[in-house]
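Quarterly update, task 2.4: magnesium ion-bound model.
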Amino acid sequence: MIEIKTDNDIKKMRYAGRLLAETIALVGEHIKPGVTTRELDEIAERYIHKAGARPCFKGYGGFPASICCSVNDEIIHGIPGDRELLPGDIVSIDAGVEKDGFCSDSAKTFAVGEISAENKKLLTVTEESLMEGLAQALPGNRLGDISHRIQEIIEAAGFGVVRNYTGHGIGRNLHEDPDVPNYGAAGRGLRLTKGMVIAIEPMVTVGSHKNKTLSDDWTVVTLDGSNAAHFEHTVAITASGPEILTKLD
Ligand code: MG
Ligand code: MG
């Protein structure tokens, strides 16, 4: 069942979204060679708590940290730990914040120092696919219009679209209906209406989109070892078009 949000719900989600955008920006300022992913997690958790909010990921399904840190061939759900970031790495930071009963969810892949041309292209194309896809989040459009636009951009660049993880509805819960795939046919699927709020999150691989979960039961990596990127925004569908809730003012 898809829960339609009121204007007041969206106001609360806008606040949770901005807190999350600030958190990810703060983490981004600390991303440099030598920092450990655990330090990044601590920075995020401290900021979220100081704002009187709750990190939604912590304890979700048993996840042990406040953010996911996925490095290089790790696509999503990397667990923060002792790993030190190295020059040339890329690291995807994914996090969620709950405030006043509503959640936000956002992700961004960062460069660690100077990165290769291929990695730069991967980050650019993944973010572009998110922004182009979310521009389709209009009342009257279909879910497939978003999915198709994302897939089109990623595959035109020669990259892979992860199939077995998707975006999702979001609100009082981190994950709600509907699923928001990053591939599909335009003009197909659910009709979008004002008051829907969805997390759109392309996960993109340099090589094959095929992936597996490591023995820690969380970290999802590419099967071929190629690098991956992940960008995500929480987006409200309003009468006048998509509103990104997880952005800085
Ligand atoms: Mg996320
Ligand atoms: Mg999400």
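Highlight for this quarter: The CA atoms of residues 206 and 213 lie 18 Å apart.
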